[in-house]
Amino acid sequence: MRLQKLKPFGRQMQRKLILFFVLSITVGCSYAPAPRDQMEYYPLGSSLTQLSRVIEGKLYSGRLPADLNGDMLLKEATRDNPNLLLPFGDYKMKANRSGRHVALLVCDKEETRAILEDAGCTGTLEKHLWQAQSPQPCEFSIDLITLCKPSSLVKPNGTH
């Protein structure tokens, strides 16, 4: 009799507590904050698509000299708005031009790993290279001639 008085909970209450602890651990462990890369690179991708569209627009309108490429293209294209390059201060930016089209590549500072790649002729970011299983080299992989030809930019319903 004395032993039963020392038990503060009945069997039903013990089951409820066990269930509560199991659920708490399950819910608590299932929440994982976004990885640092994800939190950093998604906003960077948005800035990259904005920059590539600005440069593409200037190339298309003929406001940039035909012989500009690489660093000189980036510098001249952002001369009137250098803030477009601010998000990329901790990275190496590369520009590759083909006619009136441009591809931009973001790599780590050491240029050992590609992070993002975008073509200005499309409305979306082409490649999240940071998500690859193994580090990708800091080299362009977009074929602007194929990607930016008019037939590849037309949606199935015939609109652009």
Would you kindly provide a brief summary of this structure?
With 160 residues, the protein is an alpha+beta fold.
Strand and helix map with partners:
Layout: H1 2-6, H2 11-30, H3 36-61, H4 70-77, E1 91-98, E2 101-108, E3 114-119, H5 144-147, H6 150-153
Antiparallel strand pairs: 1-2, 2-3
Report on the structure:
The chain has 160 residues and is of the alpha+beta class. Helices cover 42% and strands 14% of the residues. The chain contains six helices and three strands. It has helices spanning 2-6, 11-30, 36-61, 70-77, 144-147, 150-153; strands spanning 91-98, 101-108, 114-119. Strands 1-2-3 form a three-stranded antiparallel β-sheet. β1 (91-98) and β2 (101-108) form a beta hairpin.
Question: Which features characterize this protein?
Answer:
alpha+beta, three-stranded antiparallel sheet, 160 residues, 6 helices, 14% strand
Largest sheet data: 3 strands, antiparallel
> Roughly what percent helix?
40-55%
Low-pLDDT windows of residues: 30-34
With helices defined by DSSP (H or I, 4 residues minimum), what is the helix count? 6
Judged by helices, strands and strand pairing, the structural class is alpha+beta
Task: Give the C-alpha Rg.
Answer: 26 Å
Tally of strands: 3
Q: Which strand-content bin applies to the residues?
A: 5-15%
**What would the principal axes of the Cα set say about the shape?**
elongated
User: Distance N terminus to C terminus?
Assistant: 83 Å
Reading the helices and strands in chain order gives HHHHEEEHH
Residue-averaged pLDDT, rounded?
Answer: 82
Instruction: Walk across the major sheet and give the strand order.
Output: 1-2-3
